[in-house]
Amino acid sequence: MLLRLAYLAVTNAFAALRLLPMSDRDKDVEILVLRHQITVLERQLGGDTRVRFTPEDRAFLAALLTSLPREVLRRLRLLVRPDTVLRWHRDLMKRRHARTCRPNRRGRPPTVRSIRVLILRLVRENPAWGYRRVHGELTTLGIKVAASTVWEILKQEGLDPAPERVSITWADSCARKPMPCWPAISSRPSEGPR
């Protein structure tokens, strides 16, 4: 027993010497972390031999310990490795960033009103065009919009997105198209008199 008492006295003296170069803030953090680890262990008394940290425990320990340099973290008596604590902190920051960057609305953003008006105008002026043709014309104009968006806009307006919107006869179609300009002189070389 006397030998055990001498051993404890020497080890505690070295532990006290280790605390001398630490700042008061680092000592307070270490005390808080050790107390919290004791609380976690007390919650699990008689249970599983493996220590299980709840997400709240991980967040608390990560918030406390990330302010300390790695050398100090390695000297602390933690139930987990210092790299694990740093990973918890990274995960915590990642979740926080993801939560703040999440858009308020889910799904695809609404189509700009001017594009919607242009689509309806193209369909009104060219009733034989289907949604794919309108999409192709918008792409030619440099407007990036999906063909399915054009289809959705036409459906919302009560228009059939297919070219069968208006039944156009062949004669109507020919009447609308400009007449081709045929050359007055044939392109074939003329043969002279024989």
From TrEMBL:
Q: Which domain of life is it from?
A: Bacteria
| Keyword annotations from UniProtKB, A to Z | Signal
Q: Which InterPro entries would you find in this protein's record? A: Homeodomain-like_sf
Q: Which organism is it from?
A: Nonomuraea mangrovi
Keyword Signal found:
yes
- The residue range of the signal peptide is 1-15
Spell out the protein name for this chain. Answer: Helix-turn-helix domain-containing protein
